[in-house]
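Task: complex structure prediction.
Instruction: return structure tokens for all chains below.
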Amino acid sequence: MSNNPLLSHMRQETVFVRLPSKGNFYKDPPDLTSDGEIGVRAMTSGDELALKVPDALFNSEATYRVIRSCCPRIKDPKQMPYNDVDVVLMAIRRATYGNELTVPIECQNEECKHKQEYIKEIDPVLAQIPTLEDQYTVTVGDLTVYIRPIDLHSTTELQLQAVEQLKINDTLTDFEGSQEDIKKFQDSMRNIADSNSKIISRCVYIVEMPDKQRVEDPDQIQEWINNIDVITYNDIMKKLLEIQTVVIKVTVEGECVKCKEPFEQPIIVDQSHFFA
Amino acid sequence: MSGARSDYQQVRAAQEQMDAERKDGIAQLMDTVLYTNGAFSYHDLLQMEPLEIEVLTDKFTEKIERETSATQQRAGKKSVKL
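Output:
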């Protein structure tokens, strides 16, 4: 990027943040600055409009587009560890609309229910980014499994899987035992199982055997994942979910101006509402 | 009303709200094209940041006010700001 003669004619990076992953766990590592940060540019009007397309939000195409546009140092947004996504989106928000984030809050006191807007400053949040360890391993019997955090691509798949789960619930509600019902149910279950297996395979990048021989071939790892027992699967999943908790936690705290009821509301960095 | 139906209606309402917001966004850009007398195309504006469009709109408003005031002065009228 820095060799491009058109650089001075491009949008400028105006916000620099540290990534929780420190640039680790990407297949194509991001182009970090000399002090290990990533530069972020403001959204264009075109990006803003892309975030108003429901289907593009649902399948994450809008998120990929915005990250590609505002953070070209990240070569493939699909590979981003999910822990980095919220930080980058928050930085894009900061670069586009400034330091203040308006948060609508409704008082939790049943008799009050007063609605008010509160201001949350973004800079202090971006100054306290939690960091991931450089390497995560899970010991499974005599194997050492090296895992990376769940990426944005897998997170999208999990979201689609949640919809599949709803379809299963609907099938069960109207279940009459017909062949068609049974097939629908089986198809949905198979889709979820396949998707889970793919997600875990993407997270495992090395399996080390007792003799220190390492298996790094994705196809061989996928085959191994397809044939592991439930306990191994759960051990890996547990570690992945533990890594998933290392994210920026943004909350608005205060008390209701009307009834003085204290509140603490987390802000969900949800792409579908965050930029609105 | 079943839970599924209620969920469906919530999703539908959110989609409609988003569609309306997108339409508003497009309308604002089209307004900018019109009020700048086509100096910037819709595609130019799609590449700009919201802050740049805000500055552009302010500058064009100032320009139009100055031009209006100059035209009125030439015609012997005095423009007074209330």
